Structure formats: structure tokens, C-alpha cells
Amino acid sequence: MTSGSAKKRAEAARKALAAANKRDRRRRHLFSYSMVGLVVLIVVGVVLAVTLTRGSSPAAASGIPTTPAATAQGDPNPPPWAAPADATTRVKAAGLPMLDNEGEVVHIHAHLDVIVDGKPVTVPAGVGIDQNTGQLSPLHTHDTSGVIHVESPVQAEFSLGQFFTEWDVSLAADHLGSLQAGNDKVLQAYVNGLPVQGDPAAIVLHAHDEIALVYGTATQQTSPPATYTFPAGL
């Protein structure tokens, strides 16, 4: 074997080793780039997931608006007004969901008096409750006491307008059902004995509020209910 042949073989081996090392470095670089790209994708995915989760409030997810409707939609009929036969349809008209159970995040009670020409009008039991399915609105009545139960699974406010929509009784600043204000008749809303101006449907319900809607002559507005004694536990 000549020294020239040995040198050629050594040079060929060196070049082969260098090429192999180069290919190995390239593979390592490609692997590193792939791992970096994978990590970036994971981070972006986590950020998007957190952003979307934060952007969807519990109230929105539950179907309960955080800001209640300030108007009421219902039939313009004369009193007395019974609880609607189709509670679910009326609850949906109020923009509220039907729940399988009463909520506990917001759990308050307000009282409603409706007085027409000096005589009380019954607030019926079962407003906001589907007697067939057992489901109920976060805004409902259990009896004829006039106590409105607000029992929501999420933090939100509720209005008198939502309740009257569930009750299917038309209400605005100038009328209550078919009863129109004008001539010698006045429709006035009171909260805890104080008069409230504007559309009474916009009244927001608070714990132990005494809400009175009084329709009649001016002299029949002189002594609206200012308080209500709630049963123990309410």
C-alpha cells in the first residue's frame, strides 16, 4: 500500500466524518427549531384560552343579562291578572332562562303592592314557575303575598319590568295593563314610600324593597305602603 493511497483514504474518511457531523448539527438545529415552534404554539393556545374564558362572564354563560330590561312587555288587559299558563314563554320574553334549581349567588326578596282605585290587586303565585316541568325563573313568586323571589346562580340585577313581562302585564309610565293615566287618573310608582319618576318598569329590585304601583285619583295617592314585614328567613 502506497502512502498516497493511505492519504486519500484518510482524507475521504475525514470528509465523510465532517459531512456526518454537519448533517447531525443540521438535525439538531431543526429539532431545536421545531421544539421552539411547538412551545410558541402551546403558549399562544394557553393565552387564547385564558382570554376567551375571561371574556365570557358567568352571567353571559348562564343566559342571565347583567343589566336588566328597563321596559315591560305584556297584554293590556284589565285586572285581575292571573299567572300565565305558559310560564316558560313569558320568562324567555323577559330575557331570562328557566333553571332547574333556585340560584344562591343572588338571593333576595322584594315586595310588590298593586293598588287600583283604592283596592289591592293580587299578585298571583307561580309567576316565573313552569308547573309542568318544575323549572323556574331566577325571578318568581311562590304565593299570593306579593313577595318577589330573586334567586340567581350568578351576580346580576333584576327589574320590575322583567317581572311584569313574566306576569304578562303591560306596564309603562302611562299605563298598567289596560288602565291608562290621564284625566283624573294617575299611575304612580313608589319604592319604600318614596315616589319614583319615569317608567316603573326600570325599577331595579333590591333586598326588602317595598314597591307599590298605585293607580287612581290624586287623593288615592296620599298614603302608599312604605314598608312590608317579611316572614322570618326571607
Describe the structure.
The chain is of the alpha+beta class and 234 residues long. The protein has 2 domains: 1-55; 68-221, no CATH class. 31% of the residues lie in helices and 19% in strands. The chain has 4 helices and 10 strands. The strands form 2 sheets. Strands 1, 2, 3, 4, 8, 9 and 10 form a 7-stranded mixed sheet that branches. The longest helix is centred in the first third of the chain and has 53 residues, at 3-55. Residues 43-56 have low confidence and may be disordered. Keywords: Membrane, Transmembrane, Transmembrane helix. The chain crosses the membrane at residues 30-52.
How many extended strands? 10
Task: Tell me the helix content.
Answer: 25-40%
Average predicted local confidence, pLDDT? 86
Point out poorly predicted stretches.
43-56
Strand content: 15-25%
Oligomeric grouping of the chains? single chain
Compute the gyration radius: what is it?
Answer: 35 Å
Query: Biggest sheet, open or closed, and with what strands and sense?
Result: 7 strands, mixed
Keywords: Membrane, Transmembrane, Transmembrane helix
Region (Disordered): 57-83
Transmembrane segments: 30-52
